[in-house]
Design a protein that fits this description.
alpha+beta; YojJ-like (1; 9-stranded mixed beta sheet; elongated
C-alpha cells in the first residue's frame, strides 16, 4: 500500500529542488545497495548508471525548474509554449545513436531560447537536450525519441534520466525515466512517494481509487492513453474541447445527430492509428475534429462516430457530483450536487451526458487550460470528476 499523495504550497518550483534531489539520491543509494557483485564490477556498474541517468546538482536543478516555469508561461506568436527538457549528456546521445539534431554551437539555457525552439518540438516525442559540463547549463540539440521499441509492438521507449515537461501554462511535470517525481501546478508542488504516481498512474488504477470499486470500467479502455493524447491537443493549443467515449455497442442517450457524422468507410481511421505508436501525428491531427463546435464522439476501441455533436441538457434531475483531485484520489473527495457545480456549460453538458450513460467517459478541456475526466461508474448513482487532470508524458496504460 502506498501512502496518499499530497501537495504543499511553494512560491516557485525551484523551492522544491532540494527535497526532490534528496529523494532521488536516497532512492538511487537504495538501488546501488541492492546490487551484488565484486567491488570493481559494482563500481563500473554505478559509473555507467550515473552517466546514463545523471542527476543535476541542486543549483542546476533549481535553475532548470526556474527557467522551465518561466518558459511555460511565455507565448510564441500567441500560442502556449510547450516543451520537454531532457537532462542528458550529448555524447551519450551520440553514442546511443538517438535520432537527433546536435547543434554545432551550444545555446544558453534561457526562456527565450526555449520559446524559439518550442514550435519545432512535441513534448511527447521530441525533447530539447540540456546539460552542464564545465560552464553553465546549455541546450545542445533536439532528440527525436522513438515511441515504439522495434520488435515489441505496443512497447514504448522512454529516455533515461530526468526530464521536465510543460503542456499547460504554469504546470511542470518532472520525470525520471518512466516515473513522475514532481508535479507543480497552481502554486502547489506534489512529490509522489516511491510507490505512488500522479500523472503516470495507469488510468484504471486512478479511476479505481476514485471510485472505490473494482476496476472493471476502466479495464475496457485499452486505448485510453491515445484518447487522452487527443484531448491534450486542445490543452496545448489553448482550445476548448469535449471528447465522449462510449462503450462498444452502446446507443448513447442525450445526443443530437452529429453535424459531421462519420461514414462507415472512415470509422476505423482513428482506431488503426491508436494501435500504431508510429502514427501519433495522425492521432493528433484527427484530434482537431474536437475543435468543431460540439463534441467528438468515439467508442472505446477508437471507432469514430461523429464530430460537432451537441449534448441535450434538458435532463432536469439533480444528481451527485464527486470531484476528485488526481494528486490525492484516496483522501480528497468533494461531494456536491449538479446545481452547485461551478464550471462552465461544456463541463455541465458532459456531466449530464455521463449521468445518462453509465460506463461512458468524457474528456473536457476548458479554454482556461483545465482538463477533466468524467464518468459515471456502473456501480454509482453519481458522476465522478477527476479535476484538474494534469498531463505529463505517456500514461503507460496497458491493454486489459
Amino acid at each position: 500500500m502506498s501512502r496518499p499523495l499530497g501537495s504543499r504550497p511553494v512560491r516557485y518550483p525551484r523551492d522544491a529542488a532540494s527535497e526532490l534531489l534528496d529523494r532521488l539520491t536516497v532512492k538511487r543509494q537504495k538501488l546501488f545497495a541492492s546490487w551484488q557483485g565484486d567491488e570493481e564490477s559494482l563500481r563500473s556498474m554505478r559509473e555507467d548508471y550515473e552517466r546514463v541517468r545523471p542527476l543535476p546538482q541542486q543549483q542546476d536543478l533549481a535553475e532548470l525548474l526556474d527557467v522551465a516555469f518561466l518558459a511555460s508561461i511565455a507565448q510564441e506568436e500567441g500560442r502556449v509554449v510547450t516543451f520537454t527538457l531532457l537532462y542528458c549528456d550529448p555524447l551519450l546521445a551520440i553514442e546511443s545513436q538517438w535520432p537527433m539534431i546536435r547543434f554545432a554551437s551550444d545555446l544558453p539555457l534561457t526562456v527565450e531560447e526555449i520559446r524559439k525552439l518550442s514550435p519545432a518540438t512535441d513534448p511527447s516525442t521530441v525533447d530539447i537536450g540540456v546539460f552542464r559540463q564545465d560552464g553553465p547549463l546549455f541546450l545542445w540539440g533536439i532528440a527525436y525519441l522513438r515511441r515504439a521499441v522495434p520488435g515489441f509492438p505496443g512497447v514504448r521507449q522512454y529516455p533515461p534520466g530526468l526530464s521536465i515537461t510543460s503542456r499547460q501554462p504554469g504546470v511542470l511535470v518532472v520525470r525520471e525515466g518512466m516515473r513522475d517525481v514532481l508535479v507543480f501546478s497552481g502554486g502547489h508542488v506534489t512529490i509522489p512517494d516511491e510507490h505512488g504516481g500522479v500523472v503516470s498512474s495507469r488510468l484504471r488504477q486512478l479511476l479505481a481509487k476514485a471510485f472505490d470499486s473494482p476496476p472493471s470500467f476502466p479495464d475496457r479502455y485499452a486505448s485510453a492513453a491515445g484518447i487522452i493524447d487527443m484531448a491534450c491537443v486542445a490543452l496545448e493549443g489553448g482550445q476548448g474541447a469535449t471528447v465522449l467515449v462510449v462503450p462498444s455497442g452502446m446507443t448513447p442517450k442525450g445526443l443530437d445527430p452529429s453535424r459531421c457524422a462519420v461514414h462507415d468507410a472512415s470509422r476505423q481511421i482513428l482506431a488503426s492509428a491508436l494501435s500504431d505508436p508510429e502514427r501519433i501525428e495522425l492521432v493528433r491531427s484527427i484530434a482537431r475534429m474536437a475543435f468543431v463546435d460540439g463534441a467528438l464522439v468515439l467508442d472505446e476501441s477508437g471507432i469514430l462516430l461523429g464530430a460537432g455533436t451537441m449534448i441535450r441538457t434538458e435532463q432536469t434531475d439533480d444528481f451527485e457530483v464527486i470531484i476528485v483531485s488526481p494528486a490525492s484520489p484516496a483522501n480528497n473527495h468533494k461531494r456536491i450536487r449538479l446545481t452547485e457545480f461551478s464550471a462552465g456549460s461544456r463541463h455541465r453538458s458532459a456531466l449530464v451526458f455521463c449521468y445518462l450513460n453509465p460506463g461512458a467517459l468524457a474528456l473536457v478541456v476548458s479554454h482556461d487550460g483545465v482538463m477533466s475526466v468524467i464518468t459515471r461508474p456502473l456501480e454509482e448513482n453519481g458522476v465522478v470528476v477527476l479535476r484538474p487532470f494534469l498531463r505529463g508524458s505517456d500514461l503507460s496504460i496497458e491493454a486489459a
